[in-house]
Write a structure and sequence with these properties.
mainly alpha; 72% helix; 2 domains; 11 helices; disordered C terminus
Length: 259
């Protein structure tokens, strides 16, 4: 799976833009570019989303029984990659304006050796998810070692990650709705005033104001969601099964591996 993702990354992102005929042929297939009506992403993008989400849910929750700074940094880096990949999924599913945030070019375009490719929304979303899915392969080695832990510990970790994922999706979805409705409300009530005060920059000023209010709303929203998620975790995940808890599979493994 990981080898196929890396090969697809190299071919689709770096090779195809250099060969116009193959690039046009590749993106002609509806399987790769045609959006599903309910999700606005292609079937290929849905498959990549499934890979990213599964790798996040199946990942371990802590560094493997080591106090080494290198191991801790490696775990933190892998966890960050998984989280950033999830944000790519959120952009694809909830925001829906990938082309406004990214300008993806291959090395030959940056060096002026080939013309810049003109990607549409579906193509750019597919490439973004492909890069994210390939990057999550860096966590596979830790996942392999995590599978030998006790079933209770792995179940507790999976429940924790599912709750975290639900908090992330719910929070980001509500924030986007709040921001969009805030824009509409502000411009309907104070649009004329903004343009009189800020001139041609009235829209930008209004968006900045809504962004500041949205940031405060986001902080309060996620604070409340995290409190609720902690209560849910304490109810669903027994303390004895939590990773690293006395008597858990990870704790026993750590004691067995101790000198």
């Amino acid at each position: 799976m990981q080898l196929a993702l890396v090969v697809a990354l190299l071919v689709i992102v770096f090779l195809l833009p250099q060969i116009s005929a193959l690039d046009a042929l590749f993106w002609r297939f509806s399987l790769l570019n045609g959006p599903l009506l309910s999700l606005h992403v292609s079937l290929l993008s849905c498959a990549l989303i499934a890979v990213i989400v599964w790798r996040y849910l199946s990942a371990g929750m802590a560094a493997e029984f080591s106090t080494s700074a290198d191991d801790a940094l490696q775990f933190g880096g892998e966890e960050t990659i998984l989280q950033v990949s999830l944000f790519a999924v959120l952009l694809a599913l909830l925001y829906g304006k990938t082309e406004d945030l990214y300008s993806l070019r291959a090395i030959p375009q940056l060096l002026g050796l080939a013309p810049a490719p003109s990607y549409d929304h579906g193509q750019l979303t597919t490439m973004m998810l492909l890069i994210a899915a390939a990057a999550t392969g860096l966590s596979l080695k830790r996942n392999d070692t995590w599978r030998v832990r006790g079933v209770g510990v792995r179940r507790a970790a999976a429940i924790t990650r599912v709750i975290n994922l639900m908090v992330l999706f719910a929070g980001v979805g509500l924030v986007l709705v709040f921001f969009q409705q805030g824009q509409i409300l502000l411009h309907s009530m104070m649009g004329g005033l903004l343009f009189r005060v800020f001139g041609a920059n009235g829209n930008s000023a209004g968006d900045t104001l809504v962004g500041i209010v949205t940031a405060a709303f986001s902080f309060a929203l996620f604070w409340g969601l995290f409190l609720l998620s902690e209560r849910a975790k304490s109810f669903l995940v027994p303390a004895a099964a939590a990773p690293g808890a006395p008597g858990s599979g990870t704790q026993k493994g750590a004691q067995a591996g101790a000198p």
